[in-house]
Amino acid sequence: MAHEHNLAIFRGRLKFKSNEQKIWGVLIFLSIVTAVEVVLGIYKPAVLMTPFLTPFEGGLGATLGNMILSPFIFLIPLNFIFLVLTIVKAYYITWDFMHMRDERTSLKRAVVWTFVFLALYIALIFLTEGDYINEVYKNSTIKWNF
Questions:
Q1: How far apart are CA 126 and CA 130, in angstroms?
Q2: Residue 108's closest CA among 85, 121, 84, 116?
Q3: Distance of alpha carbon 64 from alpha carbon 56, whole angstroms
Q4: Distance in angstroms (rounded) separating the CA atoms of residues 95 and 28
Q5: What is the tens place of the pLDDT at every residue in 6-55?
Q6: Is 60 helix (H, G, I), strand (E, B) or coil?
């Protein structure tokens, strides 16, 4: 038995008359987000290329602070913007094109919470390991030969 799909996006702020219009609306939104990502990736503004914080120096407190805040200390704002825009695109693809909006709450939560946890976890691993590899090549006798 077929049921009526929700024809609104942005939490009901933008409503469409048919499924076809909704698909085009979501496609245009995703295209704009992708265009912003591409423009930022090409130009890489200097303001967004410096980390939020600098590492703390000296003492046990500084070491503990660096360990706890390492995802934020070495996080470049441009990378953070890319992470957020990627999550926004994944949300709208799943929510609208895969009709997750019309599913039961428990299934929605299981899918979304799992994705959010895994995405944040892998982002933390990539940032931590990437910084470690950068420090090894910068401070050791091994040179950048690739």
A1: 6
A2: 116
A3: 9
A4: 15
A5: 666 766 677 777 878 877 888 888 999 999 999 999 999 988 888 877 77
A6: helix
N- to C-terminal Cα distance for the chain? Answer: 58
Q: What is the pLDDT of residues 91-143, one digit of tens each?
A: 888 877 787 877 888 988 898 789 888 988 988 888 788 877 777 777 777 66
Count of residues in the chain = 146
pTM: 0.66
Place of tokens 């799992």: 114
Q: Which amino acid is at 120?
A: L
Structure tokens at 28: 């245009």
Is residue 78 within 8 A of residue 40, CB to CB? The reply is yes
DSSP H helices, the chain, are 19-43, 59-73, 77-92, 105-139
Residue 90, amino acid: A
Bridge partners for 8 per DSSP: 15
Q: How far apart are CA 55 and CA 57, in angstroms?
A: 6
- Placement of tokens 């942005």 in the chain: 10
